[in-house]
Predict the 3D structure of the following.
Amino acid sequence: MLVSGRRRLLTVLLQAQKWPFQPSRDMRLVQFRAPHLVGPHLGLETGNGGGVINLSAFDPTLPKTMTQFLEQGEATLSVARRALAAQLPVLPRSEVTFLAPVTRPDKVVCVGMNYVDHCKEQNVPVPKEPIIFSKFASSIVGPYDEVVLPPQSQEVDWEVELAVVIGKKGKHIKATDAMAHVAGFTVAHDVSARDWQMRRNGKQWLLGKTFDTFCPLGPALVTKDSVADPHNLKICCRVNGEVVQSSNTNQMVFKIEDLIAWVSQFVTFYPGDVILTGTPPGVGVFRKPPVFLKKGDEVQCEIEELGVIINKVV
C-alpha cells in the first residue's frame, strides 16, 4: 500500500514537473480562414489532424500573418504558448480552410540531390557542396489545395520534402548558431515539371519548379522545440494511396545547420523564408518506364511528427 502510494506521488510529481513544458511540445502554428472571420487568421492546430484555436480570439493584438508573427520573435511565441495552455474554444477542422503556414515569404530556397538514397537512384555521386535553386513564392498553395497541371508540361512529377521556416534574420550564419534562426518545420511538396527542369530553359531548373501551385505547404508550422530530431523523421509520399517515396531525413547529405550556413554566405535570411531540404528516392521520372502525374491523381506527402498534406491534381 505504502509503495503504491509512493509510486502515485512520484507520478504526480513527474507530471507536475513536465506540465510547464507540455504546451511547447506540440506548438503547431497555422494560417486559416473561416466563414465567420474576415480575412486570414493565425491559429494553433490542436495536435496533428485536430481542430484550430483562433489566436486572435485569445489576443486581438497579435499579427494576422505568420511572417509578421515570426518577426516579433519570442514576444508572440510566448503568447501562443499561453493560448495553448488555456482552455480555449476549438474550431472544428471541417469549419476552417487551411492556408499554407507561410505565404509570400521573401524567398523559397531549394536544395537538389540532398538525400544519399536519391543520389544512388540517379546513379550520380553525392554532391561535395549543396546544390541550390529556387521557387518563386507565387508557387505556394495550401496543404489541401489543388495542383494545377500546366498545359506547357507533360511531365509533372512529385517530391515530398522537409521544409524549414526561418524565424530570425541573419547573414553569414555559423552552422553552430543556425538552429537559433529556425522557427520550425513543415511538409512541402516540390512539384516539378521534368521536361522544363531537365531539357528546356537551358536546363536551368527554375521554370520547371515554379509553375503556379507547385509548392503546397503545411498543414502547420511545427516549432523546433516540438520536434525531437528533424534529422530522424520518417518521410513518405503516396500517389493514389500507393507509397512511391519512403525514407528518413537521416539520409540528408547536408544537414539543416550546414544548409543555413552555406546559403547565408550569399543571401540574408528573413523571418518566414522557406528552405526545401531535398527529396528522397522514388520520384516518377527515374522509374522504368517514367510515371508522371495526371488529372484526378491525389498526392499525399507525409512527415513524421509534422503531418500530411493532400493535393488533388487537376
Notes: The chain has two domains: 23-97, 106-311.
